[in-house]
UniProtKB/TrEMBL annotation, chain A:
<feature type="domain" description="EfeO-type cupredoxin-like">
    <location>
        <begin position="15"/>
        <end position="123"/>
    </location>
</feature>
<keyword id="KW-0472">Membrane</keyword>
<feature type="transmembrane region" description="Helical">
    <location>
        <begin position="6"/>
        <end position="24"/>
    </location>
</feature>
<dbReference type="Pfam" id="PF13473">
    <property type="entry name" value="Cupredoxin_1"/>
</dbReference>
<protein>
    <recommendedName>
        <fullName>EfeO-type cupredoxin-like domain-containing protein</fullName>
    </recommendedName>
</protein>
<keyword id="KW-0812">Transmembrane</keyword>
<dbReference type="InterPro" id="IPR008972">
    <property type="entry name" value="Cupredoxin"/>
</dbReference>
<dbReference type="InterPro" id="IPR028096">
    <property type="entry name" value="EfeO_Cupredoxin"/>
</dbReference>
<keyword id="KW-1133">Transmembrane helix</keyword>
Length: 124, 882
C-alpha cells in the first residue's frame, strides 16, 4: 500500500515538474545589439534548441539573426519563421544569417522544420 | 512630370500614351512603342536609369581616375559579392573592408553587388579583402578552377607556380598539389580569366593540360550529410546483429535451439550495452541538448523510454533477490531496449533517404545551370566559365550544346528543347529575334545569340529562387499541427508517467512489469515527427513537381487557396487569344484576286507599325508575295490609310473612309457586318477609286484555349472572360472558346473592380492574365495566375506563374493543388489518427477488455514507419500526371 502511495505521489510530482520545466520555467532571453549600420544583430547557437531562445528586437529596424548550428542532429536542420515566410536550411557547423525587418509589434514564434524546437522573437 | 525610361523624354502623367506597372511602381511612356519596349525588358531600362543616376551623383561611387592621380601607387579592384539582400549588408561589408590595413577607400554598391576597393598593393592583398567579406557573412563571387599541370617533379616547382599565380592580378587563392598534379585557383572574373591564369602557369615553364570537362564542385554540406548517413548505416548494421542476438537469447522459449549461454542475463547485458550507449548515443545527445533548452523532442522520448527498459533490466540482473523478495520473477528487457533503438534507426535511415528525395526537384533545377559558355570576344571564339559571361556578349551554341544564359538570337536557326524550363516537350524553333532561355538544349542547328540576362537575373536563377521560397513557405492548413507539435512531447511524457502509476496501482500481478512495459510503449509509440512532416514535405514535392512542368507556385498558401477556387476569370487579349491579330477572311470584288488584294494592302502598309498592318504584312510574307514601296503614304486618323503603290491609288480602312471618299461598297457592307458579328475587324480596300474587297482581321484563340476551358468546366469551375472589347466581339470570341459568361467593355483600370464584384458574391476567384498589364487584378484575385512570356519569370503580383503561355497550365496548376492538398490532408489525418489511437493502445486501454497489450518493440516499429509513411505519401506527388 505504501509503495502504491509513494509511486502515485512521485508520479504526480513528476508530471507537474515535467510540465513546469518545459512550459513555464523562465527562458533565456537576449536583446539585439543595434550596430552602427542600423541593423540589429543576434547570434544564436543551435544545439538541441536555440540559445538564446527569446530574442527581443525593435520594430522597423532590419534584423539579422546569425544561426550557428553546432550539431548534425537532423531535428534542427531547418529554421522556420512562419510569420515572415522564411524557411531556411541550416548547414551543420556553419553560420546562416536570417534577415528581415519586423514591421509590427508582437511575439513571433520560430521553430525547427517540424515545430518541436521553438524560440520566440519579441518585437517592441 | 514623369520620365519615359525608354526614350528619356519627359511625359506628363495625364497625357502619357500608356503606363506599365512593374514591381508596384508606375512607369509612364510617351508612346505605345516605348511602353512595349519597356514591357519586353523592364529590368534593362531600370538598370540603365540606375546607372544614369549614379553618374549624376558621382560622390556615391569611387572615382578611380582622380584617385589614381592622387596616389599613383594605389590600385583598384572590383569584387563581386554574393548574398547581399539589403543595403545594410553593403555597409557591413564596406566597414569591414575599410578597416583593413592598406585600404584607402572601400565602397560597396548594393545595386550592382560589387565592392570597389582602392588599396596600396604593398600593404594589402586582395585575398585579405575576400576573407573580410566572408567574415562579414557574405560570399565573394570568385570563380574556382582546377587546372591539371604537367611536368612538376619537385616541391619547389609548386612554390614557383603558386607564386606566379598569386602575382597575377585577380587571383585570390592558389594551391598547387604535387601529388595530384593540379592547381586549385580562385579568381575574380572581373579582373582576370582562364587565359591569363594559364599564361601565368606556362610562364614558369610548366604545361597546363586541357580542362577536364565539368568537374563537379564538392558540396561540403552534402559531404557532411553523406558522412552522417554512412555512420548511421554502419550503426544500424552493427545494432541489427547485436539486437538479433539479444532477441534470440531473450526468446529461448520460442527458439529452443538457441544455446543456453545466450540467455544468460550477463551475456544479454553485455550485448545490449553497446546498442544502448554507442548506437543510441545520438538520442542521449539530442535529448540532453534539448533538455538544456527546456525543450523536449523525439530524442527525449526514445532516450527516456529505452533507458527505463535498460535500467530495469540491469537492476534485475544485478539484484534478482530484490524482485524475488517481492514475489516477482526477475525478467530482463534488454531485447526491448536494443530492438527499439535499432528499429528507430532504420526509420531514420529511410526517412533521411525519403526526405532527400523531396527536394530533388530543386536539386535538379540547380543541376541544370551550365558551366561554360563559348563567347566571341575580340573576334575570337573562346570558352569561359558561365559566371564570366556579360550582358551583351555574343555566344555561340552548337548542336547538342546547352544554352548558357538568357538572350536573343542574332544569327542562325535551330530547334531548342525547352522542356526543362517550360515543361513543353516539343522542341521550339528559334530564329533571329527569338528569345532563348539559359539551360535549355540546342538540338539541330548552330546559332549565335546575344546575352540579355546573366547570373541571378536569368530565368533559371529566378525559377530556383521562386521554388526555394515556395518550399520555405507554410500552408495555413499546417497551423494546428504546428501548435500541437510544440506541446506534444511533454504531454506524452505526462501520459506515460500517468500510465505507469495507474498500472502500478491497479494492474494485475506483476504490476511493476506491466507498468514498465506500458510506460515504455507510450513513450516510444508517440510520433510528433509525422505531424511535423505532413505538410512541408507535400508542399516541397508539390511545388517541385509544378516547377518541372513550368508551373511556378508562390507558396503553400497559394497552393491551398487554388484548390478552393470556384471561378476562373480569363483576360482575353494575350491570354485566351494570341494577342496578335491575324487575317481571318479576305473578300474580293470587281475581279480582284486574293493575292492582288493582299499585295496592294500589304505594300501600302509596308512601313506602318499598326498591329492590323502587321497582320496583313505577315500574311503577305507567308504567301511569298513581293511587296513594293508605297508612295504618298498618309494615315487618316480614325479612318485608315491612303497610299500609292505601282501608281495605283489605294485606300484601306473602315466604312467611314469609303464614304468620305465616295466609294460605292455595295454588298460589301453586309458582309462586313457579318464579319464584325463574328468578332472580327473588317477593313475595306479600294483600288483606283473602286471597292476591291474586304480584309478581316481578328485576334485568334490560342490553340489550347478551348481545351483548357472545357477541362476547367469539367472540374466544376465557372469560367468568365474579361475584356475591353465591345459586347458583340467579346461574345463571338467567348463562344469560340466555349465560355458562357462574358464581362465586356471593361476598362483596364476597372478589371480590379470586376474581380472585387465577383468576390463580394462569395466567389473564390482565380484570375488569369499577363503579369504586367493585369497586375492589379491578379493581386486582387484569390489566386492570380500570370501567363509568363519567355524569360520574365518573377511576376510580383501573381500567386502562380505559368512559364509557357499554354492555358492548360491553369488546369494543371489547379489539379496539382488539389492533389497536394489531398495528400496533406491524408498525411495530417494519418498523423493525428496514429497518435490519438496509438498512445491509448500503448497505454493498454484494450487490456481490461480483450487482454491485448502492445509490446514496446511493435510500438517502436509503428513509430519508425509512421513518419516514413508520411514522407513516402508526399513523394507520391512526384508521379502525378499533369
Amino acid at each position: 500500500m505504501t509503495a502504491k502511495l509513494i509511486v502515485t505521489v512521485f508520479g504526480v510530482l513528476l508530471i507537474v515538474l515535467v510540465n513546469w520545466y518545459f512550459f513555464f520555467s523562465r527562458k533565456k532571453s537576449a536583446s539585439a545589439d543595434i550596430k552602427e549600420e542600423g541593423i540589429q544583430e543576434v547570434k544564436i547557437i543551435v544545439k538541441g534548441g536555440y540559445d538564446p531562445d527569446v530574442i527581443i528586437v525593435k520594430k522597423g529596424i532590419p534584423v539579422r539573426l546569425d544561426f550557428y548550428r553546432d550539431e548534425t542532429n537532423d531535428c534542427s536542420d531547418t529554421i522556420v519563421f512562419g510569420d515572415f515566410k522564411i524557411r531556411k536550411p541550416l548547414p551543420a557547423f556553419k553560420t546562416t544569417p536570417i534577415e528581415f525587418t519586423p514591421e509590427k509589434e508582437g511575439e513571433y514564434v520560430f521553430t525547427c522544420g517540424m515545430g518541436m524546437m521553438r524560440g520566440k522573437l519579441i518585437v517592441r | 512630370m514623369a520620365k519615359d525610361l525608354v526614350c528619356g523624354m519627359e511625359v506628363k502623367e495625364e497625357e502619357a500614351a500608356g503606363f506599365s506597372l512593374y514591381k508596384n511602381k508606375k512607369y509612364y511612356f510617351c508612346s505605345k512603342n516605348c511602353k512595349e519596349k519597356f514591357d519586353e525588358n523592364p529590368e534593362e531600362y531600370l538598370k540603365s536609369e540606375e546607372r544614369e543616376k549614379d553618374q549624376v551623383l558621382p560622390e556615391k561611387e569611387v572615382e578611380p581616375e582622380p584617385a589614381q592621380e592622387q596616389e599613383e601607387k594605389s590600385e583598384r579592384i572590383d569584387i563581386p559579392i554574393v548574398g547581399m539582400s539589403c543595403a545594410s549588408c553593403a555597409s557591413t561589408i564596406q566597414r569591414g573592408l575599410a578597416d583593413l590595413k592598406g585600404v584607402e577607400k572601400a565602397n560597396v554598391n548594393f545595386a550592382t553587388s560589387k565592392a570597389t576597393v582602392l588599396f596600396q598593393p604593398q600593404l594589402a592583398r586582395p585575398e585579405e579583402f575576400i576573407s573580410s567579406v566572408r567574415k562579414s557573412g557574405y560570399e565573394v563571387g570568385t570563380v574556382s578552377l582546377e587546372l591539371p599541370i604537367q611536368g612538376m617533379d619537385c616541391a619547389s616547382c609548386v612554390q614557383k607556380i603558386e607564386k606566379a599565380l598569386l602575382q597575377t592580378r585577380g587571383v585570390t587563392k592558389a594551391v598547387v598539389n604535387l601529388a595530384t598534379e593540379k592547381a586549385k585557383i580562385e579568381y575574380l572574373p572581373s579582373e582576370t580569366g582562364i587565359k591569363e591564369i594559364k599564361h601565368a602557369i606556362e610562364s614558369t615553364g610548366y604545361k597546363v593540360l586541357e580542362l577536364a570537362p565539368s568537374e563537379e564542385v564538392e558540396d561540403p554540406e552534402r559531404l557532411i550529410r553523406e558522412k552522417e548517413y554512412k555512420k548511421l548505416k554502419t550503426k544500424f548494421i552493427v545494432g541489427l546483429v547485436l539486437g538479433l542476438f539479444v532477441f534470440l537469447g531473450s526468446s529461448r522459449h520460442w527458439f529452443l535451439w538457441v544455446p543456453s549461454f545466450l540467455g544468460n542475463f550477463y551475456v544479454l547485458w553485455a550485448l545490449a550495452t553497446p546498442v544502448q550507449f554507442w548506437i543510441g548515443w545520438q538520442f542521449y545527445k539530442g535529448a540532453w541538448g534539448a533538455f538544456k533548452h527546456r525543450n523536449a523532442d523525439m530524442n527525449t522520448l526514445i532516450a527516456v523510454g529505452t533507458s527505463a527498459a535498460y535500467l530495469y533490466s540491469v537492476t534485475a540482473t544485478l539484484f534478482p533477490s530484490f524482485f524475488e523478495a517481492g514475489g516477482i520473477k526477475p525478467v530482463v528487457y534488454f531485447d526491448t531496449s536494443a530492438l527499439i533503438i535499432v528499429l528507430i534507426l532504420l526509420g531514420r535511415l529511410l526517412e533521411a533517404r525519403a526526405k532527400g528525395q523531396t527536394s530533388e526537384a530543386i536539386k535538379k533545377l540547380m543541376g541544370l545551370s551550365p558551366k561554360t559558355a563559348r563567347v566571341i570576344r575580340e573576334g575570337k571564339e573562346m570558352d569561359i566559365p558561365v559566371e564570366e559571361v556579360l550582358v551583351g556578349d555574343t555566344i555561340v551554341v552548337r548542336p547538342g550544346g546547352k544554352i548558357p544564359v538568357d538572350g536573343i538570337v542574332k544569327d542562325g536557326k535551330s530547334a531548342v528543347d525547352e522542356s526543362m524550363i517550360t515543361g513543353e516537350s516539343i522542341p521550339v524553333t528559334k530564329k533571329a529575334g527569338d528569345e532563348v532561355i539559359g539551360a535549355t538544349i540546342n538540338k539541330t542547328g548552330s546559332f549565335k545569340f546575344q546575352a540579355t540576362k546573366v547570373g541571378k537575373d536569368t530565368a533559371l536563377a529566378q525559377i530556383i529562387k521562386l521554388v526555394q521560397d515556395a518550399q520555405g513557405s507554410k500552408a495555413p492548413i499546417q497551423r494546428l499541427a504546428d501548435v500541437i507539435s510544440g506541446y506534444f512531447v511533454p504531454i506524452v511524457i505526462s501520459i506515460a508517467i500517468a500510465t505507469f502509476v495507474i498500472w502500478f496501482n491497479f494492474g494485475p500481478f506483476p504490476a511493476l512489469t506491466f507498468a514498465l512495459l506500458t510506460f515504455v510503449a507510450v513513450m516510444i509509440i508517440a510520433c510528433p515527427c509525422a505531424l511535423g512532416l505532413a505538410t512541408p514535405t507535400a508542399v516541397m514535392v508539390g511545388t517541385g513537381k509544378g516547377a518541372e512542368k513550368g508551373i511556378l507556385i508562390k507558396g503553400g498558401e497559394s497552393l491551398e487557396t487554388a484548390h478552393k477556387l470556384d471561378t476562373i476569370v480569363f483576360d482575353k487579349t494575350g491570354t485566351l487569344t494570341r494577342g496578335e491579330p491575324e487575317i481571318t477572311d479576305i473578300v474580293t470584288q470587281n475581279d480582284y484576286s486574293e493575292e492582288e488584294i493582299l499585295k496592294y494592302a500589304a505594300s501600302a502598309e509596308k512601313f506602318s507599325e499598326h498591329p492590323l498592318a502587321e497582320a496583313i504584312i505577315k500574311r503577305a510574307k507567308e504567301k511569298k508575295i513581293e511587296l513594293h514601296d508605297p508612295k504618298n503614304f498618309n494615315a487618316i486618323e480614325g479612318h485608315g490609310i491612303e497610299a500609292e503603290v505601282d501608281g495605283k491609288k489605294i485606300l484601306l480602312g473602315n466604312l467611314k473612309l469609303m464614304q468620305k471618299q465616295q466609294i460605292v461598297v455595295r454588298n460589301l457592307e453586309e458582309k462586313a457586318e457579318e464579319l464584325a458579328g463574328d468578332g472580327k475587324t473588317p477593313m475595306y480596300i479600294s483600288l483606283e477609286g473602286k471597292a476591291a474587297g474586304l480584309i478581316a482581321v481578328a485576334d485568334t484563340l490560342k490553340e489550347n484555349s478551348l481545351q483548357a476551358v472545357a477541362k476547367l468546366k469539367k472540374l466544376g469551375l465557372e469560367v468568365i472572360m474579361l475584356t475591353g472589347d465591345n459586347k458583340k466581339t467579346a461574345e463571338a470570341i467567348a463562344r469560340k472558346a466555349g465560355i458562357d459568361r462574358v464581362l465586356p467593355e471593361v476598362l483596364p483600370e476597372d478589371k480590379v473592380n470586376e474581380i472585387k464584384n465577383l468576390q463580394s458574391q462569395g466567389r473564390r476567384v482565380g484570375m488569369v492574365g499577363d503579369g504586367i498589364n493585369d497586375a492589379p487584378a491578379l493581386a486582387q484575385a484569390d489566386v492570380g495566375i500570370a501567363i509568363g512570356s519567355g524569360t520574365d519569370v518573377a511576376m510580383e503580383a501573381s500567386d502562380i506563374t505559368l512559364i509557357k503561355g499554354d492555358l492548360r497550365g491553369v488546369v494543371s496548376a489547379i489539379e496539382l493543388s488539389k492533389r497536394t492538398i489531398k495528400i496533406i490532408k491524408q498525411n495530417l489525418f494519418w498523423a493525428f489518427f496514429y497518435n490519438t489511437a496509438g498512445i491509448p493502445l500503448a497505454a493498454g486501454v484494450l487490456y481490461p477488455f480483450f487482454g491485448i497489450l502492445l509490446n514496446p518493440i511493435f510500438a517502436s516499429a509503428a513509430m519508425a514507419f509512421s513518419s516514413v509513411s508520411v514522407v513516402s505519401n508526399s513523394l507520391r506527388l512526384r508521379r502525378v500526371k499533369l
